[in-house]
Every structure is written in C-alpha cells, then in structure tokens.
Task: inverse folding
C-alpha cells in the first residue's frame, strides 16, 4: 500500500538528481510511493511500469532506461533473491522518517553481491548491512588505504572530528552529511574508478 513520503529541498540540488533525466527523477520519487517501509520494491518491469505510469504505454519501454540511469547514480540497486528481482532504494532510511513503520515483507539484498561487482564492493555491502541494515554507509577502514582519508584530515584535534560538512578538501551538496556520509561518497568514487 502506498504511503506519504517526504521530499527534502536539497533533493533538487543533489548531484545524482542533476545527473539523470527529468523522467528518471520522477520515476525515483514515484518509487518512494510504492516502496515498502524498508525502501524495497518488487521488480517486475511490466507491472511496475503500469503501477508508476498507469495508462502510459510508452513507460513500459522507457522504464528500464530510467532505472538504469538511477542505478548508475547509485540511487537504487537491483538484486535477486530466490529468482525474484527487487529494487532497493539506497539511503532510504536517511531520507524517509516513517512514524509507524510496518515490517518489510520483501527480502533484504544478499550481503554478497554478484561476482562482477568485485571484492571491494562485496566487503562494502557486507559491512554496511551490519552497520545499519540498509547498506547505506561503511567505515573507511573497510577500503584499501589509498582510498582512506588520513586521520589528520578530520580536524586539528584527532579526538574531535571537524564539524559536519567542514572536512578540508571535501565539498558536499547535502549541507552536512557527517563522517559516514562522506565515507560513503568517497567509497562510491573509489568503486567508480575501480569498476
């Protein structure tokens, strides 16, 4: 059953949304409306196209391309469990605060991703699932040292990290996402270079 969802003003300025087409943006928001309270949707292309765009026969042909755009920007992730396909909305719990959540009926993504994803991404998924159950973020310690930020870059006093969003040399479009948010951004950039 569809529920009311929240769109934050910074959605308009986010890097990922600026990188996708207008229809991919609309599809992303509409996915929020049909997702369960854990941010998951059953992926049956024909049924999903009819659910998101009722009465629009072109959506059936175009929806896979819009989903590809969103997946390239790491807004969604497709996965399979027991030969059924699902879509997981990445960072769901960071952006949707649900007052009376119902338990998710759809299975979570497996910790071990497909072979073509590479070992680094498998480690990222396994550790992040442990941290918050959503696969949103992972500590930098899980990545090779060449991707880790030196402790000195956290602030003048290593025991007190710098204020949110004020890390030297890091520019964020979210206006302050914290250490793990920055770590996730750095990890995605590293994965893009490796993959």
Result:
């Amino acid at each position: 059953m569809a529920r009311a969802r929240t769109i934050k003003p910074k959605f308009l300025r986010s890097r990922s949304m600026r990188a996708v087409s207008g229809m991919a943006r609309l599809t992303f928001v509409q996915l929020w409306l049909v997702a369960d309270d854990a941010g998951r949707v059953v992926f049956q292309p024909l049924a999903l196209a009819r659910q998101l765009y009722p009465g629009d026969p072109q959506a059936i042909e175009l929806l896979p391309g819009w989903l590809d755009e969103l997946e390239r920007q790491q807004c969604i992730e497709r996965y399979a469990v027991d030969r059924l396909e699902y879509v997981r909305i990445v960072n769901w719990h960071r952006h949707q605060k649900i007052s009376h959540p119902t338990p998710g009926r759809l299975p979570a993504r497996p910790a071990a991703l497909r072979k073509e994803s590479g070992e680094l991404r498998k480690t990222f998924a396994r550790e992040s699932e442990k941290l918050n159950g959503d696969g949103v973020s992972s500590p930098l310690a899980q990545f090779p040292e060449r991707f880790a930020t030196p402790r000195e870059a956290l602030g003048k006093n290593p025991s007190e990290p710098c204020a949110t969003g004020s890390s030297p040399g890091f520019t964020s479009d979210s206006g302050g996402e914290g250490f793990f948010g920055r770590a996730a951004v750095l990890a995605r950039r590293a994965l893009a270079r490796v993959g």
About this structure: Residues 36 and 46 are 19 Å apart (CA to CA). The first helix runs from residue 15 to 18. Residues 114-162, 164-176 have pLDDT under 50 and may be disordered. The longest strand covers residues 76-81.
